[in-house]
Amino acid sequence: MPSSLTWVDHDPAARERSLRILALFQEKESRDELGLGGIRDSFADQLFPGTSTIQTRLRYMLFVPWIYTHLEHQRMPLGEFAARADKMERNLVGPLLASDDKSGVFGVVAGKGLKRLPSSVYWAGLGAWGIRLVDFSQEEYHRQIGAIYRRRATQEARERERARMGDDAEATPDPGTLTWHPRLPSPPPDFPAKADFILNHEEASFLLDRLQHTHPDSLLGHLALHCYPSEVELPWLHPDRAGFREAHQELLEHARRFSQVMNGAALLYNLALSELRNWEEKIEEYRDRLKKWGEELDFADLGNWSLTRLWELTEGQGHTITLAARRFVSRWLELVGDSRGNLGEDEEAWNLVRQREKALKKARSRFVNRRALEQWSGSSGLGRLVYRWPTAKTFLRDLHSGLQRGA
Question: What is the pTM of this model?
Fold first, then answer.
C-alpha cells in the first residue's frame, strides 16, 4: 500500500506543516540519514523562508497564480479545473525553452511529460509569501473551486443589492472568496504563449513587498532590500555579512557550526557502509575525506559553541526536533572534541552513527537490511548543509535584475 499523508482538522498551521512535509518528500537533497532534517529546516525557514531546494526561478512565483487566476476568471468548472491547470503548466515548457534564458526550466529534459509540476513545488512558498491566500493544499483548492465560485456569486449579489439600496459604503470582501493576492500583477498580454524568466519592475516590486510584509525579519528579506546579489557558495561567507543584523549573525554562526560538525557524521556513516560492503575504493575515499574534515575543524571555535542556545534558536519554528536528535548531536560534538576530529578509528563514534540510523530506519536500516545495503549507491546524505542558499541566491539575482528595470 502506498504511503499517504492526511489531516482531518482545519487548522491553517497544521495544513502548512503538512505542506512543508510533502514538499520535502520531493526535494532531491532532502535525504536525512541521521535524523537532522528538523534542525536543518528550522535554520532554512528562518533564513530563507518560502524557499525549497527544488525551486529554480523566481518568476514561477507569478506563473503559477497567473495560470490559476486565468482559470478562475473563466469560471472553469470543478470537473475541468485541475486538468486545465495541469495542461497549462505543461504547455509553459515550450515557450520557456524557446526563451534566451533556459536555466531552471521545469521540463528541460522531459518536456510536457515532466512528472513534477512547478505549482506543486512552489505551493508552500506562495503561501509563505502571502501570494496564495487560501489555506488549502493544492488538491483541496482544486476540489473547493466550485464552492469558491458560489461564495463569490453570493457576495456579488449582496453588493448589487447594497448598491440598489443606495449604500455606498465600501464592502469588505468575504475571506472565503479570496484565493490570490489582490495586487498580483497582471500577466503579459502574450502569456502563456510566450514566457521567460525576466521580471519587470512592477513584478519584482510586488514580490519584494510580499517578502517584506510576510518575513521582514528574515535574512532573505534583508538581502533583498539592502544587498547586491552574491555568488558565494555559503551564506556565512557573504561579503556584506558585517552589515547583517545581530540576530542574522548569530543564526548564521550556529548554522555554520552545525553544518561543519555534522558533515563529519555523514562522512563516517558513508565510511561505515563502505566497510560493510567491502568497497575498497569508497573506504579509501571516505577515510581521506574524514581525515581532511577533522584537520579543518576549529576546536577553539567549537569550544565556544553553546548547544543550549542552538536549541533555543531552532526549536518552535514549525519543525520537530526530538530529544533523540538533540542527544545525538550533543554526543557527537563531545566525541569530536575528545578525539580532536580523528574519528576514523573511534569505535564509540562508529557505534553512535550506526545506532542512530538503525533507530530511525529500523528494519530498513542499511546496517541490518542486506537488500537496502546493496541498493546503496556509494554516497548518501553527504551534501553540505547550506540551508537552501543556492535557491535564495537565484531568487535574489532574479529580483535584483527586475528591480533595476525601469527604476
Answer: 0.89
